[in-house]
Every structure is written in structure tokens, then in C-alpha cells.
Amino acid sequence: MQFYSDEAIEEVYKMRHAIEDVKSILNDLNDDKIIMKERTVLEVPGTHNTMLYMPCINTKSNYSILKTISIFPENTSKPVSQGVTLLSDLTDGQHIANLESSYLTRLRTGAMSAIATDKLAKQDAEVLCVIGTGGMAFEQVLGVIEVRNIKTMNLYNRTYEKAKDFKNDSKTLVLRVTFKCLIVFQKLLKMPILLTVQHAQRKVSLTIKTFRLMPILMVSDHTYLKCEKSIQLQSSTLTQSS
Prior knowledge:
Elements: E1 2-4, H1 6-12, H2 15-30, E2 34-36, E3 40-43, E4 50-58, E5 63-71, E6 81-89, E7 95-100, H3 102-120, E8 127-131, H4 137-147, E9 152-156, H5 160-170, E10 178-181, E11 193-196, H6 208-212, E12 217-219, H7 231-241
Parallel strand pairs: 1-7, 8-9, 8-11, 9-10, 11-12
Antiparallel strand pairs: 2-4, 3-4, 4-5, 5-6, 6-7
């Protein structure tokens, strides 16, 4: 069985590859070729730590994956979130590869945002507002700029320092974009593309009126107690953004 580290995967697998692969998987899902269950969430007793388990079978490609993610929010010397994926062949049951999946998880999430942006945002959108500049934000941004010619990026974060760090870290890879740190909330509703990348500590309440004021709202990591967003919220997002 082969093992691939995050570093090895990152050298050869980029956002453009992830976007095409995610599109293909979504087509397979639409064609009922994907069999999967809701992810299993196990809390570690007496801690704030969580283990996530996500199994999936693709009857078209004839492969199975099982992704495991550990979320240890108090980690200091190691990443808060660490992932690994087991790839198996459904022809003979052989386990083919074990892949570190922290990078792949971020990339896949960014690819989903890219596909949503391409479907819902105006073709001439040039301004991107990023709410939350933590660990997931960079790949989200990479996804959006892959499908739109973004010229200005407004960064909004609880702390100015973290937004500034994100700006400085991103400038070398996103050369064509002008960054602005911290904007007032009233301006958010006028942004061509609004991208949220943050953990919600309480349930997300977004009104229909809010959706009507923006072409697209991308809720990337709004989870409450690690539960998925409700179907009603997802449906409202798509309906009001189209």
C-alpha cells in the first residue's frame, strides 16, 4: 500500500485539478453512482476534541474511501485539524493507498466554493470579501480567483493582526489582487462575492432579505456543534442567490 504525504500531494495536485475532479464527483452523485452515509462524529469525553469519520463508495470508478479527521482545538505543536484517507479497490477489496488529507480537505472545500462561484456570481465580479482569515481561508480564495478575475479582496476578521498576516502570506501567490483589511459590516451587503470562512459558535441565522442583497453568499464553515447546515438554509442560499 502506498502512502502520500500532504507535501507530496501539494507538489502535483492543484486547485484547477480539484475543481475538475469535484465537478466529476458531483455528476456521479447526480447519477446515483455515489453511496455514502452521514459522517460519524465522536466527541472525546472530558475534552473539546472530536473525531470525524466519513465513508463513501463510488460505483462508477469502483473505489471506496474512508476519511478520518481529528479536530483538537487546543493543539499548539501540531495542527488543530489532521486528516487521513484510506483508498480501496472495490474489485478485490485491496487497500491501495493512504493519503494525508489536511491539504486535500482544504482544497476540496475551496473547489466547491469555486464551482458555486462560477455558477452563481456575476461574470464580471472583481471584488471578493473574505470573512474570517483562518486556516481554511486561503484555499477558499484560491478557488474563487480560479474562476473569476478578482482585483480587490476585502478581509474581515475579529483581529486586525490575523487579517494582516493573511494579506502578507497571500500576496506572493495572489499577485494581481489588491488587499484591504477590515471593512465595516454595512459594506458587506454590497460585495459582488461574499465568502465566509469561520466556525460558528452559535446557530447561523441568515434572513431571506440578506440573500436578496447579494449575488452570492458562500457559507464555507458555518457549523454548529459540527452539524451540517440545514437543507432549508442551503435551499434558501441557492434560491436567493440565483
